[in-house]
Amino acid sequence: MSDLSVFFAQNVAGEVTEEVAVSARFRNKDGSAVLWKLRSMTEDENEQCRKAATRRVKGKNGQYTQETNTEDYLANLVSSSVVFPDLKNPDLQRSYGVLGAESLLRKMLLPGEYVELVQHVQRLNGFDQDVNELVEQVKN
């Protein structure tokens, strides 16, 4: 039987952070690309992102169903994972003429940069791991 204590909160690795160069367009004074700081999130935070992107839609025969807008969900997920730059900063939002972190990201980044950022956030939060691959890693 395994030791149950490995699952206790105090024994689990905490939040994971990572610094990523999202775009070469944002440069420091020395000319190097500015690194964005990303963090992992909990499933509770993920659920909040999903709920914020879910709407009740009236379907056939007056029945309501819930639909999640994937683009809004991903925007919520990414904006919640970005630590730096502070996407909620009103001065930064004002400089791009937008309100809200999700709108700011869409305005700041080129389409390819945005996709790259989404992929980093998904990987950081474990969406890229295949269960079978994890089993093989544990075996070795």
Key descriptive features of the protein:
flat, single chain, 5 strands, 140 residues, alpha+beta, two-stranded antiparallel sheet, rbstp2171, 15% strand
Largest β sheet strand count, sense and barrel closure = 3 strands, antiparallel
- Overall mean pLDDT stands at 86
Structural class: alpha+beta
For this structure, the CATH topology is rbstp2171
Taking pLDDT < 50 over at least 5 consecutive residues as the criterion, the unreliable ranges are none
What's the tally of helices?
6
Helix content: 40-55%
- Tally of discrete structural domains: 1
Rg, Å, rounded: 19 Å
* Strand arrangement in the largest pleated sheet: 1-2-5
Please give a structural write-up:
The structure is a single chain. This protein is 43% helix and 15% strand. The chain is α+β, with helices and mostly antiparallel strands and 140 residues long. The chain has a single domain, classed as rbstp2171 (2-Layer Sandwich). The strands form two sheets. It has a three-stranded antiparallel beta sheet. A hairpin with a 5-residue loop joins strand 3 and strand 4. The protein starts with 16 loop residues before the first strand and ends with a helix. 14% of the residues are buried. The model has no long low-confidence stretch (mean pLDDT 86).
